[in-house]
Amino acid sequence: MNFQPLTSFIDTITSWKIPWAEVVIMHKNKTVYHYRNGFANLEEKTPIGDGAIFNLYSMTKIMTCVAALQLIEQGKMLLSDPVSDYLPEYADMKIKKTMPNGEVRLETATRAITVRDLFTMTAGFSYDVGSPSIQEAVKQSKGTLPTRDFAKALAKEPLLFEPGSQFHYSMCHDVLGALIEVVSGKRFSIYLKEEITKPLGMNDTAFDLNDEQHTRLIPQYWYNDELEKAIRQDGNYFRVGTELESGGSGLLSTVRDYALFLNVLTHRGTSPEGVRILSPASVELMRTDHLNDKTRGDFMWDHMRGYGYGLGVRTHISKSESGLLCSIGEFGWSGAAGSMALIDPESELTVMYAQHLIHSQEPYVHPRLKNLVYSCL
Questions:
Q1: CB 163 within 8 A of CB 123
Q2: 151 and 214 share one domain
Q3: Which runs of E-coded beta strand occur in the chain?
Q4: Does a structural domain hold residue 348?
Q5: pLDDT band for position 104 (50/70/90)?
Q6: What is the pLDDT of residues 265-292, one digit of tens each?
Q7: I need a surface site. Which of 57, 185, 311, 344 has the fewest CB within 10 A?
Q8: What DSSP designation does 185 have?
Q9: How large is the average pLDDT for residues 167-194?
């Protein structure tokens, strides 16, 4: 193994637009590479150090979907179940339709939203946290908006399309978090702690930080194209309530901590210490491509060419389409600030990449990073 090309790449992007970057590579349960460079605080020129805590954003979705799959394994729900069996507010949903003359109508959906729709982003939701119903719920809750109340508020908004008919990246996994609360009978954060993070020894992954962890929470930046520089912009704008535990974007973590979780999925649900959080069968179902003839055309991000979409994760299905060196079946997801998970059971390879930059340059960084990892092995 020669990781010098990867090191050079990290050095290059951190002297370009990315304030700092860090990557951990695990192969056959051993850490074979760990490197970081850049500044945690650009203004003070503070080098990025060990144990830095940052927003995972949509990489939260991987853990949310694992938690929901645990409940499916336990027979507490099925992918085919209507969500309204557990969250009654999702019965009789309305769909917003715009007629040829520009008139907007609300029509009753003919198909129920299923649990599968929440996993696969086919429920018909948007990603508009500023929608009227959500903002009214924030006001009524005096800014707290607990997870379950968030789901109730979202249900008041009309759907964008008939459930199951399209893929649309949305707040599906936030509703999945509320579903986990109802089905498990536990607060979402408590469920994750008891069933995933504590058993795996993940001490720095949570929705809320303690005093010591707050000292390690590092600045977040936004890359401004006009100014051609990164501007500080702290806070998670998806967390619209202080008690909202967002299954889609709410977790904070460190590179080392989240790598522990990802590596369990690489080894089909069981940690090196023998802690099992998911069965191999569930991991296979998770990384199976769930797109179909109706939804495949909606999954069209250029840097996702050659990928399908599983239960909350991208999944590599065609090397000829992607042009990447990744194994077929490699899966994972990324976050709004640029973090990325690469999980490859066939190669026994786990990659946790992190940065903390909104407008993250993902289409440039992530495909190159993937190719470099495989070429260096």
A1: yes
A2: no
A3: 20-27, 30-41, 46-47, 54-55, 94-98, 104-108, 221-224, 229-232, 252-253, 307-309, 314-316, 331-332, 340-344, 349-354, 357-358
A4: yes
A5: confident
A6: 999 999 999 999 999 999 999 999 999 9
A7: 185
A8: T
A9: 98
What are the φ and ψ backbone dihedral angles of 316, each rounded to 5 degrees?
-75, 120
Beta-carbon-side half-sphere exposure of residue 258 (alpha carbons within 13 Å): 36
Kindly report, residue by residue over 326-358, the tens digit of the pLDDT.
999 999 999 999 999 999 999 999 999 999 999
Alpha-carbon distances, residue 206 vs 2, 56, 87, 180, 197 (angstroms): 34, 10, 25, 16, 9
Q: Where are the beta strands (DSSP E) in 42-113?
A: 46-47, 54-55, 94-98, 104-108
What range defines the domain where residue 114 resides? Answer: 79-184
Classify burial at 359, counting beta carbons within 10 Å of its beta carbon; exposed 0-12, middle 13-18, buried 19 or more.
middle
Domain-located, residue 277: yes
291, two tokens: 């797109």
Tokens found for residue 190: 């408590």
> Does this model's pTM top 0.85?
yes
Alpha helices (runs of H) in 78-194, residue ranges in sequence order: 115-120, 132-140, 147-154, 172-184, 188-192
Confidence category of residue 97, pLDDT binned at 50, 70, 90: confident
d(CA 328, CA 195): 29
Residues recorded for the chain: 377
* Long-range contact set of residues 295-301: C-beta below 8 Å, sequence gap at least 24: 295/120, 295/122, 295/165, 295/166, 295/167, 296/167, 298/166, 298/167, 298/168, 299/167, 301/363
Domain end residue (candidates: 169, 184, 199): 184
Q: What is the CATH number for 92?
A: 1.20.58.710
Q: Are 252 and 55 in contact (CB under 8 A)?
A: yes
| Residue 74 lies inside a defined structural domain of this protein | no
| Confidence band for 103, pLDDT divided at 50, 70 and 90 | confident
Q: How far apart are CA 255 and CA 261, in angstroms?
A: 10
∠ Cα 272 275 278 (to 5°): 105
